[in-house]
UniProtKB/TrEMBL annotation:
<feature type="transmembrane region" description="Helical">
    <location>
        <begin position="323"/>
        <end position="344"/>
    </location>
</feature>
<feature type="transmembrane region" description="Helical">
    <location>
        <begin position="12"/>
        <end position="32"/>
    </location>
</feature>
<feature type="transmembrane region" description="Helical">
    <location>
        <begin position="410"/>
        <end position="432"/>
    </location>
</feature>
<keyword id="KW-1133">Transmembrane helix</keyword>
<feature type="transmembrane region" description="Helical">
    <location>
        <begin position="351"/>
        <end position="369"/>
    </location>
</feature>
<keyword id="KW-0472">Membrane</keyword>
<dbReference type="Pfam" id="PF12698">
    <property type="entry name" value="ABC2_membrane_3"/>
</dbReference>
<keyword id="KW-0812">Transmembrane</keyword>
<dbReference type="GO" id="GO:0140359">
    <property type="term" value="F:ABC-type transporter activity"/>
</dbReference>
<feature type="transmembrane region" description="Helical">
    <location>
        <begin position="278"/>
        <end position="303"/>
    </location>
</feature>
<dbReference type="InterPro" id="IPR051328">
    <property type="entry name" value="T7SS_ABC-Transporter"/>
</dbReference>
<protein>
    <recommendedName>
        <fullName>ABC-2 type transporter transmembrane domain-containing protein</fullName>
    </recommendedName>
</protein>
<feature type="domain" description="ABC-2 type transporter transmembrane">
    <location>
        <begin position="23"/>
        <end position="427"/>
    </location>
</feature>
<feature type="transmembrane region" description="Helical">
    <location>
        <begin position="237"/>
        <end position="258"/>
    </location>
</feature>
<feature type="region of interest" description="Disordered">
    <location>
        <begin position="174"/>
        <end position="198"/>
    </location>
</feature>
<feature type="compositionally biased region" description="Low complexity">
    <location>
        <begin position="174"/>
        <end position="193"/>
    </location>
</feature>
<dbReference type="GO" id="GO:0016020">
    <property type="term" value="C:membrane"/>
</dbReference>
Amino acid sequence: MRASNVWKQPRAWLVVVVGCVLAALSTFSYLVPATDPEGHLHRLPLILVSEDEGVMAADGTKVDLGAQLVRGITRAAARDDRVEWTVVAERADAERALADQDAYAALDVPRDFTEKSLSLLTAGSSAERPALTVLTHRGVGGMAASMADKAVRKTAAKASTQLGSQLIARAKTAQKATAGPTATTGRAADPTRVGAQPQSAAATPGFLALLHDPVQVTAQQQPLDAGSASSGGTIPLYLAVALLISGLLPASLLTMLVDARLGYLPLEIGPRRLLKPVVGIARSSTFLAKAVIGAVMGFAAGAVVTEVGLVSIDFGAQAPGRLVVFCGLACAAVTLLTLALFAVLGAPGQILALLVVTLIGIPLSGGAIPPEALPAGPDALGQLLPARHVVEGIRSLLFYGSDASQVTTAWLVLGAYALGSVLLGLLGSHFYDRRGYRRAHEHELTLRTAEHPAPEPLPRPSS
């Protein structure tokens, strides 16, 4: 037979169509989540800390510019559902929320915000620019970190502009109040009064420019004692990709070697082709044998991947021991899922596993694009796939500790995947056995016993 004879077969070209469909599907799964994430952004969780104590004015009224700033931010957020601000009273509450993965970033309005803001209206060395602090967490990475930082800084810039308008109005009012009494009675206004401003300072161009943007924005990342790895929150995604691929490989390798050992597939190594006699074994027994070995192989592969990462890179992991166990379980669950799909669907099961675990699962995992920036449909699908829970579990164990709620959810979901895969493989293969769908015809089967080490044909039933 020549190659041209194969080319003439229509079915031989069906694989080209299948390959094109898979390529289009994988491209679609990667590009759709990355298309206009800003437009799909909804309810990005942020924290607003309102600590400003305000100051008492000369007339006995309280001036609280920080509270006004907080009210302005929350009113604006109510009209725009792209971000969701949660107001807390203490900075410790914001740091706790970041540590619990309840928000991506926080904006801290300090206790002396009003005092420093009004100090800009008084002449002397006591004037100091008010500050807003952007609080972030090292565990937030990828597009989530950039979106949160952009949203918080944009809010801070707008708040600075609004505060500047208020201060300029106060400066002009104070300037008129100072000029009036001076011109009529020759007495200057009390410079210690809140809002008082000497005319010479108010007229300075640099002073007016400062009032247009009076707030300085600083940044602080939590935790302060993190590891030296600069990639921060992007590490869980890369580690999850390595784990998912490492879970697929043992299943493919195990299927090839076990089926070759049982005589159902030839084993080709270079120019050599080994084909052993077919061994009579039920499908359910074959799957059970593969599942036990595959679980051990998958767990070992996941543990090795994690240990290599911990040794080669200073992650600053919060729970390294549990991280190794978790990654081992995640890898074993992927291996069992692939073996179950192999048992039920045959060779197409490997393609389906590749789609579910990597080609579709990774783009929807939330490791690169946060779930808040995904369309509703892909986001719901991503919650059902193992990749998202692998990423969330790794992120929690790396940066947040083993008590995070995301870790518990990830343990349960991956455990359900592992158990469900075993049940699916056993029930599917048992069904095939009951219906008589054997992997080999009767004349291909051989019987191996201790008395007959050489393969011996099975006896055929007498007519």
